[in-house]
Amino acid sequence: MSQIESVLQENRVFAPSEAFVKQATVSGMEAYQALCAEADRDYAGYWARLAKEHVVWKEPFTQSLDESEAPFYKWFTGGKLNVSYNCLDKHVEAGNGDKVAIIFEADGGEVTKVTYKDLLSRVAKFANALKAQGIKKGDRVIIYLPMSIEGVVAMQACARIGATHSVVFGGFSAKSLEERILDAGAVAIITADEQARGGKHIPLKPAVDEALDLVAGKSAIKSVIVYKRTGGACAMKAGRDVWWHDITDSQSEVCEPEWVDAEHPLFLLYTSGSTGKPKGVQHSTGGYLLHAVLTTKWTFDVKPNDVFWCTADIGWVTGHTYITYGPLACGATEIVFEGVPTYPDAGRFWKMIQEHKVSIFYTAPTAIRSLIKAAEANPAVAPKSYDLSSLRLLGSVGEPINPEAWMWYYENVGGGRCPIVDTFWQTETGGHMITPLPGVTPLVPGSCTLPFPGIQAAIVDETGADVEWGKGGFLVVKKPWPSMIRTIWGDPERFKKSYFPEDLGGTLYLAGDGAVRDAKNGYFTIMGRIDDVLNVSGHRMGTMEIESALVSNPLVAEAAVVGRPDDLTGEAICAFVVLKGARPNGDAAKAVIKELQDWVGKEIGPIAKPKDIRFGENLPKTRSGKIMRRLLRSLAKGEEITQDVSTLENPAILDQLKQAGS
Ligand code: 6R9
């Protein structure tokens, strides 16, 4: 709450400099308002105009927006295109083949540069290799790779042949992989022997082997393609596993793109919701690409001479839109980095910005907060020890950025001259939804400011009615937009229920976040999730997923998971656990905590490990048997319980659960 209050009291305003405004793609508030007015006047016509101007179509579309099966909206009906053509061939054909597309910096600091011509040739060869493996248009392919040029190549190659990729973050476990392989009905997995992180080699392929053992007899997987990243030990199963280089090196550099319908599913990306089962968010080809391009041009103001760096992993949506697709579709030069921000030391980001002359830098508040701490402890790794004068624009994504971190980023990294675009969006939205435009919007630390032109964001109450500025409510989007989620893979009912709930009238897209608009200027401030989803270091985690993982441990009878504020990670995971045996104390408790943390790490992935685990003989429940999560949240925060606990079946349990680490 203190953060929201401090944003509400925030009165520092940073208007864009005249120099920035002058050169910006969208320049000045009048230009922004004109775009918004155009969308208001003729919504479908506005997006159709942009889709014609910013995307190359093999066959033109005949209808902009088809609402006949709402909320299953269709965009750009009749149009045919290929995303990889738009990201690669287009630039080579225009004579820009020798421009550097990707500057890759490995964990150990080795740098590899790939031009657009090289990248096209690598993508075409790998696309031919995929086809030779029998993978075809419409097949689902799981990508489980570390940050690498190959990761981008694999995604682009799938797009080239019309296969739908589903990238699984390399930090997810075999169990998470298993779930996604089955749900997506995938036919192939692209992975690597090991990944390199912070100077260590971490095996990746064994998780694939384990997942495939778990799905034996149930999955459609025919091949596993393994990129040799480190050359470490890697068991290969004959008849199933093949090396990337073995199937690719002799392929032709020419691969005709598969021209697909605008609505063809480009990718599925699994994300957490409020039940235990992750949702396969399905994205389209045409509408998704349009928004990736537009936001890269308008929010990031990307120009031919820029060096763009988004620090996300390709396992998250940010890596999809702002590494694999947006910057390449705009013909930019971009950085891809492997490793962690703190190795070889916490100056890595600043050193990379200095060395590669990065001009646009996009990262997450959690990274900023940890680098502030590191800089305070050791001035040698502080931004001021590096030459960051190449920077002209900064961005933030993934969670609310607290005004203190915003100011530090603005002054220490941006030297007080770079606008910060605090971009609010989600896996489901495909690209930025509410964000400043750097040559337009006066910035207020902690606010994502105003909707992207054409996006009809609003705040409503529990009946779907607009609330007045200054009052909090549910963040919604009133009209469909081109890059929106099309459905939840295999579960259209859940799609409707989760995003277009009847309580709100059934036509508003419910983002799942609470928000408030400033009473004076209408700026949006995001107040966090309204559902059982936590945001830990910018990663979305469902409390139910973690609870399911905990109760699958033989020691555990029952578990409830809540979030509590954390200075570094935004939110921290706090689990209340009832064991089947006696409630442990002291060292015995510590040992069980460690065992359960490791268990969750193995079930879901290390990012899901609860930071706190408390044991009780029971959980606080109402007489109807509902766990009182509100109370657990107060306990997790260490707050005094002021709520009415008279409806609790077992009030005495609160004293037990108050004891942290017990
Ligand atoms: C892109 C991405 C989405 C959730 C979203 C919200 C939070 C993202 C934010 C932000 C405040 C921002 N979120 N950006 N909150 N300000 N600029 O992060 O997608 O992983 O699906 O998470 O993240 O809570 O609902 P995803």
UniProtKB/TrEMBL annotation:
Function: Catalyzes the conversion of acetate into acetyl-CoA (AcCoA), an essential intermediate at the junction of anabolic and catabolic pathways. AcsA undergoes a two-step reaction. In the first half reaction, AcsA combines acetate with ATP to form acetyl-adenylate (AcAMP) intermediate. In the second half reaction, it can then transfer the acetyl group from AcAMP to the sulfhydryl group of CoA, forming the product AcCoA.
GO molecular function, one term: metal ion binding
Database matches in Pfam families: ACAS_N, AMP-binding, AMP-binding_C
Organism: Oryzomicrobium terrae
Family that this chain belongs to: Belongs to the ATP-dependent AMP-binding enzyme family.
Keyword Transport annotated: no
Domain Acetyl-coenzyme A synthetase N-terminal: from-to ranges: 32-87
Keywords linked to the UniProt accession: Acetylation, ATP-binding, Ligase, Magnesium, Metal-binding, Nucleotide-binding
Residues reported to bind Mg(2+): 551, 556
GO cellular component, one term: cytosol
EC number: 6.2.1.1
Catalytic activity: acetate + ATP + CoA = acetyl-CoA + AMP + diphosphate
Residues binding CoA: 197-200, 318, 537
Enzyme class per UniProt: ligase
PTM statement from Swiss-Prot or TrEMBL: Acetylated. Deacetylation by the SIR2-homolog deacetylase activates the enzyme.
Sites where the protein binds ATP: 398-400, 422-427, 513, 529, 540
Residues of the AMP-binding enzyme C-terminal domain: 545-626
Protein name, UniProt field: Acetyl-coenzyme A synthetase
